[in-house]
């Protein structure tokens, strides 16, 4: 890690030229923003912690987990998370490695919170896919990879848990290629596994990295032996080396050589083998992210593509989270910077509201604490205090009217009607649901006719979180009941009259979501199809973008 080099320190560059295009370009170039995608239990939390250890952001293993459980203990609604041992909340960690600024966006692994994960993935430039090598490709991996593919996000793959009995590595690659439809370029190759795990062979560097178990210190280094034909290796592991040479020959013949362009296009993934819990292979992953993963690139907005090195600041909100810090009882809007330089206290324009806001108490997310942001560049995530006026997908700029596109909402698959035990609390209920709807914790639909609100979710656990938060944060004891609704579609049309007629004719099943978009709540697949046929001038959408 070379953070001692004064050339690279931010203070120095500021003194040298201030807000110059050159400074912005340099800061953008050294940023890497990525998320980890994995099926629960593959080792995401463990790997996150090791990445932070390597970067020096934390000193001790166990910190990430401890932090998580610390949050459980102090935050009521997180009880659910604790009970189920899953991670509801995502967070952001920024750290330095080899003079690069790395932003790691954490994602909830449980599929019931996948909506949140999908949106987090719109804010990353690359993704790290963690696979349990004993299990191979699992359900959640497939879904998340599909989301990455929407934007051709480059993927680095880590095959984890080689210290256990795993599946045959060639078979694993084959599965990745056939199930995930992504080319694999092995970069390291395992030598043995389980009790006989000896290390990995680096195919590009022709080096062998020897495995040693159970180390948890930050700057642990593993012994490196140069050259696959090194006689020392033959002496040490005669059996494994014969096997390795055979496999390497196979791999070289059968798999794709690593190709940076293909990786950047999202077509090919470099594959690393290792063991997160033993710190083994983690440095290689970090190096791959620094050396190969893309710095922030241009982002699509209405009107035009915004380049990260443009001087004016722009960004969009991809996530809103409540109770980040129970001591504050606050909500924070997570904004990804897309261009320019953000400075504390600067005035930015909230483009949906057409209003200028002065953002002074902005936080960044260092691995160990929240800190005030002095400045931020494309790829960085900053947290804006949200007093109920920000929604997911909101864009900010220094004045230019544009909206970043591609932040999805997915049509919910599960529905509940809300009733409250105490009718005097109706106002609080509406306020709570409005806010939770804006946060994306649940989708809230208000039917045009008939009083009761309908909640929609992508996973049923979302309802439990909402019920618990309504109780704890708004003092509302809500009862969720089943409904006859089976699917929802957002409705749009250029023909305004058709929309009006549609609403008048089907008022019980036409509803508006928290952002004011019209939706059709269908009672069955047949009902949806018939309605679509009867209203040919309307379009029915299974996803909507924030606009
Ligand atoms: P997550 O659900 O993806 O965040 O997974 P965790 O990081 O919580 O890991 C799930 C389980 O796998 C935990 O019991 C870890 O200790 C274990 N685990 C993680 N990495 C390794 C590894 O490299 N080897 C072995 N044997 N176990 C691991």
Q: What does this entry show, briefly?
A:
One of its GO terms (molecular function) is translation release factor activity, codon specific. Keywords: Cytoplasm, GTP-binding, Nucleotide-binding, Protein biosynthesis. This protein has 547 residues and is of the alpha+beta class.
Write the layout of secondary structure elements.
Elements: H1 10-17, H2 21-29, E1 31-38, H3 44-55, H4 63-74, H5 79-84, E2 92-97, E3 100-105, H6 114-121, E4 126-132, H7 139-150, E5 155-160, H8 169-180, E6 183-186, E7 188-191, E8 199-202, E9 207-210, E10 224-226, H9 231-236, H10 238-254, H11 260-264, E11 268-273, H12 282-291, E12 299-300, E13 305-306, E14 314-322, E15 331-339, E16 341-343, E17 347-350, E18 355-358, E19 363-365, E20 370-372, E21 375-377, E22 381-385, E23 395-397, E24 408-410, E25 414-420, H13 426-439, E26 443-447, E27 454-457, H14 461-474, E28 478-481, E29 487-492, H15 496-505, E30 510-513, E31 518-522, H16 525-534, E32 539-541, E33 543-545
Parallel strand pairs: 1-3, 1-4, 4-5, 5-11, 6-11
Antiparallel strand pairs: 2-3, 7-8, 8-9, 9-10, 12-13, 14-15, 14-23, 15-22, 16-21, 17-18, 17-23, 19-20, 24-33, 25-27, 25-28, 26-27, 26-30, 29-31, 29-32, 30-31
Quick tags:
globular; translation release factor activity, codon nonspecific; 28% strand; protein biosynthesis; GTPase activity; 8-stranded antiparallel β-sheet; binds guanosine-5'-diphosphate; EF-G-like_DII; 33 strands; RF3_GTP-bd; alpha+beta; 7-stranded mixed β-sheet; 547 residues
């Amino acid at each position: 890690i070379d953070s001692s080099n004064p050339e690279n320190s931010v203070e120095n560059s500021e003194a040298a030229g201030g807000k110059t295009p050159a400074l912005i370009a340099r800061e953008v170039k050294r940023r890497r923003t990525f998320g980890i995608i994995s099926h629960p239990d593959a080792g995401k939390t463990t790997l996150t912690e090791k990445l932070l250890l390597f970067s020096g952001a934390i000193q001790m293993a166990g910190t990430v987990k401890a932090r998580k459980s610390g949050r459980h203990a102090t935050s009521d609604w997180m009880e659910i998370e604790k009970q189920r041992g899953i991670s509801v909340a995502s967070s952001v960690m920024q750290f330095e490695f080899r003079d690069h600024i790395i932003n790691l966006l954490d994602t909830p692994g449980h599929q019931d919170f996948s909506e949140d994960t999908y949106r987090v993935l719109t804010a990353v430039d690359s993704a790290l896919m963690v696979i349990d090598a004993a299990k191979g490709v699992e359900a959640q991996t497939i879904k998340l990879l599909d989301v990455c593919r929407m934007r051709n996000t480059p993927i680095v793959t880590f095959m984890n848990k080689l210290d256990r009995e795993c599946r045959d590595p060639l078979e694993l690659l084959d599965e990745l290629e056939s199930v995930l439809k992504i080319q694999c370029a092995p970069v390291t190759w395992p030598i043995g596994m389980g009790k006989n795990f000896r290390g990995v062979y680096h195919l590009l560097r022709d080096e062998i990295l020897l495995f040693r178990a159970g180390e948890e210190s930050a700057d642990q280094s593993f012994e490196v032996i140069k050259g696959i034909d090194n006689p020392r290796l033959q002496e040490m592991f005669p059996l494994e080396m014969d096997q390795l040479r055979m496999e390497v020959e196979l791999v070289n013949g059968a798999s794709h050589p690593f190709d940076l362009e293909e990786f950047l296009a999202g077509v090919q993934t470099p594959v690393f083998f290792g063991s997160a819990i033993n710190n083994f292979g983690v440095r290689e992953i970090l190096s791959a992210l620094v050396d190969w993963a893309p710095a922030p690139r241009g982002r699509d907005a209405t009107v035009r593509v915004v380049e990260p090195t443009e001087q004016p600041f722009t960004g969009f909100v991809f996530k809103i989270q409540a109770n980040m810090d129970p001591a504050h009882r606050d909500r924070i809007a997570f904004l990804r910077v897309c261009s320019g330089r953000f400075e504390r206290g600067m005035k930015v324009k909230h483009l949906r509201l057409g209003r200028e806001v002065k953002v002074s108490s902005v936080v960044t997310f260092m691995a160990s604490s929240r800190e005030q942001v002095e400045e931020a560049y494309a790829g960085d995530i900053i947290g804006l205090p949200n007093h109920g006026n920000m929604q997911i997908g909101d864009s900010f700029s220094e004045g230019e009217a544009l909206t970043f596109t591609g932040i999805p909402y997915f049509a919910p698959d599960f529905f509940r009607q809300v009733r409250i035990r105490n009718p005097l609390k109706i106002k609080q209920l509406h306020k709570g649901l409005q806010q939770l709807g804006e946060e994306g914790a649940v989708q809230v639909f208000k039917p045009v006719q008939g009083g009761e609100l309908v909640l929609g979710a992508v996973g049923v656990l979302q309802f439990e979180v909402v019920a618990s938060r309504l109780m704890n944060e708004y003092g509302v004891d809500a009862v969720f009941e089943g409904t006859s609704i089976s699917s929802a579609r957002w409705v749009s049309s250029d023909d305004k009259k058709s929309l009006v007629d549609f609403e008048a004719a089907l008022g019980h099943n036409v509803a508006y979501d928290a952002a004011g978009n019209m939706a059709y709540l269908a009672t069955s697949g047949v009902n949806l199809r018939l309605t679509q046929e009867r209203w040919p001038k309307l379009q029915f959408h299974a996803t909507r973008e924030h606009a």
